[in-house]
Amino acid sequence: MSVLKKQDKEIFDIIESEFNRQNDYLELIASENFTSKAVLETAGSVLTNKYAEGYPGKRYYGGCIHVDEAENLAIERAKKLFKAKYANVQPHSGSSANMGVYMAYLEPGDCIMGLDLSHGGHLTHGSKVSFSGQIYTAITFEVKKDSGLVDFDDLLQKAKEFKPKIIICGASAYPRTVEFEKFREVADKVGAVLHGDICHNSGIIAAEMHPSPFPYCHVVSTSTHKSLRGPRGGMILLGEDYENTLGKVAPKSGRVKMMSELIDSAVMPGIQGGPLMHIIAAKAVAFKEALEPSFKSYIKNVLDNAQCFADEFKNKGYNLVSDGTDTHLVLIDLQNKNISGKAAEIALDEAGITVNKNMVPFDPKSPFITSGIRIGSPAMTTRGMGVDEVKVVVDLIDQVIMNHDNKDKINTVRSSVNELCSIFPIYEKDS
Ligand SMILES: Cc1ncc(COP(=O)(O)O)c(C=O)c1O
Fold first, then answer.
1. Pick from 96, 145, 305, 375: CA 20 to 30 A from residue 31's CA?
2. Range name among 60-69, 236-245, 339-348 with the lowest pLDDT average
């Protein structure tokens, strides 16, 4: 019998219920995925018991011999995967990774520039409700109304006017390729550091099916749990030229510190204490998986599935922001379907299909209601679903959206979702 079940039946039951929910619902949230059992096992290992403030070979605690080995492996694999020169694998999340970047490069009050939240950007790119918009002066750029693509004229004009120290490229709800080279041109024109936040696309970049942020970005941050399919966490990377990126002068010694040093101290002790060694080891496991050829096949399927979502939704008269996708996600503008993003999210949830409401560019509705939904393919692809299943799923989503007040219809869709999910369990039974 499970130890947890004996000791804490309440939490055991909650975990069991969540397992069943993940298994029985169709997960289409673009930022979610199912890790391998090996990653799960590592994340639940004795490494969680170890305090290891500092970095491998330079810890504030004894007994770090084995966690040093784990962190070094994670660093080496991360560098290999992204062709980077430096990796800090300690950030607890994508947000912490961004905070670490800003701490290393900026002083409070400095200007940062990122894609507007309502145009697909992330809270940590300068939203007033996040530390990023409270500690720093945030200016946002937008996408073009006609194409849904980044408006580089708007970006350049604002960059010239506000002279940001950092320009952030990468987003949470941007279905198209991030044009790192074009962002770098703008950054160079105003002397800004280019920060690539590849949280969403990192798996696609690792599989070399999206352009690399290097050599264009001076610094790169990512979460590890989205398309990359690792444990919940973050990391910061520097490319080949990091030694040439200007660091800051240390106030006491007058020595110019390298960016790698500044990032290390920004992450710990700047914003974090002890690293989560069980998660860092689980990141190492996920990076090993992502280095294998099978990960490339997985990402190819993720992209094929997303493309199929785009084509099928368009065939049914849905409007997509940017008219399609190059990545793992599509952003549906529901304004011609007479339903808000919030109502669609609720009705789909009742039918066993999990999506998130999402603002669309120039959205007339509030962030709590929204005019859109975001749909991503990574999680369903991990459980083995392909384009045949995507076609079925689009049909089911359409039935719910067109009949969102009809409980009988929603119940019928729920049965079809159950049937589909039972064919593709999230974890195979132990042999
Ligand atoms: C572009 C981007 N940056 C940062 C984050 C923050 O990551 P986390 O939720 O791990 O803090 C996200 C998460 O959705 C994101 O999409």
1. 145
2. 236-245
Query: 179-202, pLDDT tens digit by residue?
Result: 999 999 999 999 999 999 999 999
Is residue 431's pLDDT more than 80?
no
172 lines ligand 1 (CB under 6 A): yes
217 in Cβ contact with 236 (< 8 Å): no
Could you tell me what percent of the chain has a pLDDT over 70? 96
What distance in Å separates the CA atoms of residue 112 and residue 279, rounded to the nearest whole number?
30
Burial class (CB in 10 A: 0-12, 13-18, 19+), 422: exposed
Ligand 1: residue whose CA is nearest its atom 7: 94
Pick the CATH number of 41-291 from 3.30.200.20, 3.40.50.300, 2.60.40.1120, 3.40.640.10: 3.40.640.10
- Which mutation among 33, 168, 172, 232 tests ligand 1's pocket best, with the greatest number of atoms within 8 A of CB? 172
- Given the candidates 3.40.50.20, 3.40.50.720, 2.30.42.10, 3.90.1150.10, the CATH classification of the domain at 295-423 is 3.90.1150.10
The full set of domain ranges for the chain reads 41-291, 295-423
Between the CA of 313 and the centroid of ligand 1 the distance, in Å, is 26
- Distance from C-alpha of 293 to C-alpha of 268, rounded to nearest angstrom: 34
Residue 417 Cα to ligand 1 midpoint, Å, equals 28
